[in-house]
Design a protein that fits this description.
CATH class: Mainly Alpha
Strand content: under 5%
Distance between the termini: 35 Å
Number of domains: 1
Length: 395
C-alpha cells in the first residue's frame, strides 16, 4: 500500500514536468518565424486537436487494458519524441509530424492520470479526498505553466525560439523517469480488463447509464468554455494594446488564478449535489462571457479573471462527479470519452467564434458563446436530472 500512496506526490511531479511548457508563450511566434502564416498555424493546431479527438477513446481503453502506469509511460515517451521533432523542424509538414506525436502522447495522459489518482486513493481508502487532491494536481499544472511562461519568454528573448523548445526536452525526459516510478493499484482492473471493450463501454454509456453520458457531455461543454477563453485571451489582450511581454505576464497571472481556484475547490460543498453544482458552474461561465461582451476596455479583465477562476474550480469538481458514477475497470476509457467530447465540441465551436470575430468583433463572439452555453447546457442538464430520477425510480 505504501507504494501506491506514493503515487499522489509522483503525479504532482509528473503534472509539473509535463506542463512546465517553456515554449507555450512563443510557439505561434516560432511557427511564424519559420515561414508559416497564421492560418497555417491554425491548421497545424486543428490537426493536433483532431488527432487528440480520434485517439482519446483508444488511448483510454489502452489504459484500462494494459494499465494506467504503462499508458502514462507511453504517453510521456511520445511527448518527448514530439518535442524533439518540433525542436529541429522548420517546415509545415515537419510541424504536423511533430504534433501527431504530441497529440497521441497527450491523449494517453488525458484521463489516465486522473484514473490512476482516483484508483490509488480508492485502494488506500482515501477516495473522499479525491477532489482536494485532484484540485491540487490541477493547480500544479497551472502553476507550472505560469512559471514557465515567464522563463520561456526570457529565454526566447536572449537565446531564440528554437533553444527554448529544445530546453523543453529536459522536462520531458524527467517526466518519463517519474512515470516509471508509478505503482499500479490492484483493483478491478486486473480481473476485468479482458471483459471490457470500447463497444461494451459505449453501450454502458448510451443505454445503461445515460445519466453518466449526459454528465460527460455537460463536463465537456464547460471544459470547452475554458478552452475558448484560453484561445481568445491573446487576441483579446492584443486588442487592449498589451505588448507581447505583458501578455506573457498576464498569461502567467491567469494560470495562477486557475491554480488558486482548483487548489481550494475541495472546500466547496459538492457531495450528492451534482445538478446544483453543474448548474452553478454553467451559469457562472455563461454570465462571465456575457458580462465580458458588455465590458470593452480594461474593465473586461475582471470577467476574464473570473472565468479563469471558475475554470480552476470546475475541473476537479466535475471530475469528482464523473468518477463517482464510473466503475474502476473502465474509468480511464470514460474519462477519455470526456476528452473526445471536449475536442469535438471545440472543433465545432471555435471556427464559428473565429468567423464572428472576423466579421463583427471579439465582443460579439463572447456574447454568442455566453448565450450558446445556456442554450446547449440547460437542456442537457435537464436530461441528466431526468435520467437520475428514472434511475432512482427503477432502483
Amino acid at each position: 500500500m505504501r507504494g501506491v500512496e506514493g503515487n499522489v506526490n509522483k503525479l504532482y511531479l509528473l503534472k509539473f514536468t509535463k506542463w512546465f511548457l517553456l515554449y507555450m508563450p512563443i510557439i505561434v511566434l516560432f511557427y511564424q518565424d519559420n515561414g508559416l502564416s497564421l492560418s497555417e498555424v491554425m491548421i497545424v493546431q486543428s490537426i493536433y486537436s483532431i488527432t487528440m479527438a480520434i485517439t482519446e477513446m483508444p488511448s483510454g481503453y489502452l489504459a484500462d487494458f494494459i494499465g494506467r502506469k504503462h499508458t502514462i509511460i507511453i504517453g510521456m515517451i511520445f511527448n518527448f519524441v514530439g518535442i524533439l521533432i518540433l525542436g529541429i523542424s522548420s517546415t509545415m509538414a515537419m510541424f504536423i509530424f511533430a504534433v501527431l506525436f504530441l497529440a497521441f502522447g497527450n491523449s494517453c495522459l488525458s484521463g489516465t492520470d486522473s484514473a490512476l489518482l482516483y484508483d490509488s486513493l480508492k485502494y488506500t481508502k482515501k477516495s473522499d479526498t479525491y477532489t482536494k487532491i485532484e484540485g491540487r494536481t490541477y493547480s500544479m499544472h497551472t502553476f507550472a505553466e505560469a512559471i514557465a511562461a515567464i522563463f520561456g519568454g526570457l529565454i526566447a528573448d536572449y537565446y531564440g525560439y528554437r533553444i527554448t523548445i529544445q530546453l523543453q526536452l529536459i522536462f520531458a525526459f524527467l517526466g518519463i523517469l517519474i512515470a516509471f516510478t508509478l505503482v499500479e493499484p490492484k483493483l478491478q482492473l486486473v480481473k476485468e480488463k479482458h471483459e471490457h471493450s470500447v463497444r461494451a463501454i459505449l453501450i454502458f454509456l448510451f443505454k445503461e447509464n445515460k445519466k453518466l453520458n449526459a454528465l460527460l457531455v455537460l463536463s465537456a461543454l464547460l471544459a470547452t468554455a475554458s478552452l475558448t477563453m484560453a484561445w481568445f485571451a491573446q487576441p483579446y489582450l492584443k486588442g487592449l494594446d498589451f505588448s507581447d511581454s505583458h501578455i506573457g505576464f498576464m498569461w502567467s497571472f491567469l494560470n495562477l488564478i486557475v491554480a488558486l481556484g482548483s487548489f481550494w475547490a475541495y472546500k466547496i460543498p459538492h457531495n450528492n449535489r451534482i445538478v446544483k453544482g453543474v448548474l452553478l458552474i454553467l451559469i457562472a461561465f455563461s454570465l462571465g462571457f456575457l458580462f465580458l461582451s458588455l465590458s470593452p476596455g480594461y474593465w473586461g479583465l475582471i470577467f476574464v479573471v473570473g472565468i479563469y477562476l471558475i475554470r480552476g474550480i470546475s475541473v476537479p469538481l466535475l471530475k469528482f462527479f464523473i468518477n463517482e458514477e464510473t466503475p474502476s475497470s473502465s474509468r480511464a476509457t470514460i474519462l477519455s470519452i470526456r476528452g473526445f467530447y471536449i475536442r469535438a465540441l471545440f472543433a465545432l465551436i471555435a471556427p464559428l467564434l473565429g468567423w464572428i470575430t472576423d466579421v463583427f468583433d471579439i465582443y460579439q463572439a463572447f456574447a454568442a458563446f455566453g448565450i450558446a452555453l445556456l442554450v446547449l447546457g440547460l437542456p442537457i442538464l435537464f436530461g441528466f436530472y431526468y435520467f437520475e430520477k428514472m434511475k432512482k425510480v427503477n432502483g
